[in-house]
Amino acid sequence: MTHRFTCRVYYEDTDLAGIVYYANYLRFIERARTEYVRALGIDQTALKREADLVFAVRRVEADYLAPARFDDELIVETALKSLSAARIVLLQEVLRGDARLFAAEVTLVALTGAGRPTRLPAAIRRLLAEP
């Protein structure tokens, strides 16, 4: 499944040249991951409260391919690359129309609320693995 999240570039997202500041792409893909998980039916607040489990970014490999600019409408696509007992690897792209602006491979890990590694519950792995 590829999840699509739409966002707009606001003035606050840009530098003096009107180009999206590089770190803001990480904000865009974070929002898209949150909506991706929500669309799968995973309530992260309930997951923390009931299973003492949170997701944390372990690694991001990013390629900045072309600039986004003030007032652009962007689409962030998120797709599962791989899944293990305690790790999720996602592929994320930021698009403006057909133009690919940014690509990232993001590794998430499951942690307890205290920050210790933990396994993903089987029900969560099933939801993530569904096509």
Features of the shown structure:
elongated; alpha+beta; single chain; Thiol Ester Dehydrase, Chain A; five-stranded antiparallel beta sheet; 24% helix; 131 residues
Mean pLDDT: 96
Low-confidence stretches: none
Cα-based radius of gyration, to the nearest Å: 16 Å
| CATH H-level homologous superfamily name | Hotdog Thioesterase
How would you classify the quaternary structure? single chain
**Helicity range of the residues?**
10-25%
Which shape, going by the Cα principal axes?
elongated
How many domains, in number, for the residues?
1
Tell me about this structure.
By secondary structure, the protein is of the alpha+beta class. It has one domain: Thiol Ester Dehydrase, Chain A. Helices cover 24% and strands 41% of the residues. It contains three helices and five strands, in the order βααββββα. The protein has helices spanning 24-39, 44-51, 122-129; strands at 2-8, 53-64, 73-83, 87-96, 99-112. Strands 1-3-4-5-2 form a five-stranded antiparallel β-sheet. It is elongated, with a radius of gyration of 16 Å. 21% of the residues are buried. The mean pLDDT is 96.
